[in-house]
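Title: Comparing notes on inverse folding

I've been comparing how different people in this forum approach sequence design from structure. To keep things fair, I'm posting one structure and asking everyone to reply with a full sequence. Here's the target:
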């Protein structure tokens, strides 16, 4: 009898261990809130179509197919510092392969905090009528793919490339295009805004479909605004479209000659970099600056700051030329509000007391004087602490399963001993 009870207890412990292990193995690759999903496509299907903004968080490096975002969905894809590798293309109604993301009419997506690459099939983000795309602190890498065109947009759409976003296209391929397609009489062009501290390595294509209507109206219908970025590719601009739709306010350009006609008034290219065409004013002596905007000495780029939950951390910047206006800190808590000023945070340092809810929050400091301002790199909080394992952390999950199994087996043995008395 005792032997049977021990065997039964052992079987129950093994069954529980297997159940928990299978749960761990079947853990999702992404989540919305506390709900996990086995693919990005499955998570997208759970997002409402009423425009409510929903955040899908990647839980680890993941391989999967292209993602179609249906009409009316408003999604933030937070890659969580991981890589999403696209393997299988989407095929649209026109037969166009979109190996990446396809935004259908009236949809909005933001891709942030990580990397998207692809297999040899290529990588493309296709934006359809009235859809909008934001890329922030993300790297799109298709250099191993023979055919990739990252961002191609149709009508009324807007593309914003911000933060430290990098785009690496395959040799001879486009990083993005800005085109006016009047086919069918409904097209209204697209606006692409580039303001990144990262690198755009690939052709920038600008033009129309070649029809007379397209050539005559592309400058009004397709807008390209460049605020900043390191452009190492070439610019492919149709001669007949004119220059009214392109305005360059800043950035560095390897192919400088192509972009010169599109500089905003008062600017020039010097060593491939956009600078002021006028001599800076002499020091007016009223704010400690020397005729130029401030310069950030550190940090020179984005950095992850690890901190224990309910502990303290101090963020600091070191800059020269600080004067009138001083400093102002900004934070993005991932709540859809973007970066907002931190009340009262006007010094070169900022002390925080983060909780788990602050994990992933981004901070930067704007340093000002009478001649302009400059922004520091991002401080990205990684709030750690506690013993609860996270999905995707296989070491923690395995340890948790083993400890639970040992506990159940021990309890079963004690129970069996008591019954045998």
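Reply #1:
Here's my take.
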């Amino acid at each position: 009898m005792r032997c049977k009870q021990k065997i039964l207890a052992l079987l129950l412990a093994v069954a529980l261990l297997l159940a928990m292990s299978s749960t761990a193995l079947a853990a999702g690759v992404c989540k919305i809130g506390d709900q996990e999903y086995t693919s990005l496509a499955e998570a997208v299907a759970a997002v409402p179509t009423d425009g409510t903004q929903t955040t899908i968080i990647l839980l680890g490096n993941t391989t999967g197919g292209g993602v179609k975002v249906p009409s009316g969905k408003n999604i933030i894809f937070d890659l969580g510092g991981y890589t999403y590798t696209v393997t299988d293309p989407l095929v649209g109604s026109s037969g166009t392969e979109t190996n990446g993301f396809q935004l259908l009419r009236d949809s909005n997506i933001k891709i942030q905090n990580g990397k998207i690459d692809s297999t040899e099939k290529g990588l493309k983000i296709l934006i359809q009528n009235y859809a909008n795309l934001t890329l922030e602190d993300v790297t799109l890498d298709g250099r191993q793919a023979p055919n990739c065109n990252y961002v191609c947009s149709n009508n009324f759409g807007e593309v914003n490339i911000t933060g430290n976003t990098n785009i690496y296209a395959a040799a001879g391929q486009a990083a993005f295009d800005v085109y006016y397609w009047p086919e069918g009489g409904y097209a209204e062009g697209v606006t692409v805004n580039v303001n990144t501290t990262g690198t755009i390595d690939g052709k920038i294509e600008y033009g129309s479909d070649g029809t007379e209507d397209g050539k005559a109206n592309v400058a009004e219908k397709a807008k390209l605004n460049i605020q900043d970025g390191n452009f190492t590719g070439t610019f492919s601009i149709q001669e007949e479209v004119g220059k009214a739709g392109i305005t360059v306010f800043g950035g560095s350009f390897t192919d400088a000659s192509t972009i010169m006609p599109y500089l905003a008034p008062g600017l020039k290219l010097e060593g491939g970099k956009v600078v002021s065409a006028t001599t800076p004013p002499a020091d007016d002596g009223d704010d400690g600056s020397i005729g130029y905007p401030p310069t950030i000495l550190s940090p020179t780029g984005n950095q992850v700051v690890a901190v224990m939950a309910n502990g303290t951390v101090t963020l600091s910047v070191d800059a020269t030329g600080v004067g009138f206006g001083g400093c102002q800190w900004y934070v993005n808590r991932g709540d859809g509000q973007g970066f907002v000023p931190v009340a009262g945070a006007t010094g070169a340092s900022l002390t925080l007391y983060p909780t788990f809810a602050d994990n992933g929050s981004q901070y930067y400091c704007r340093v000002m004087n009478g001649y302009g301002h400059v922004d520091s790199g991002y401080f990205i909080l990684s709030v750690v602490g506690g013993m609860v394992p996270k999905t995707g952390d296989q070491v923690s999950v395995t340890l948790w399963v083993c400890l639970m199994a040992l506990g159940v087996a021990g309890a079963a043995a004690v129970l069996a001993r008591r019954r045998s008395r």
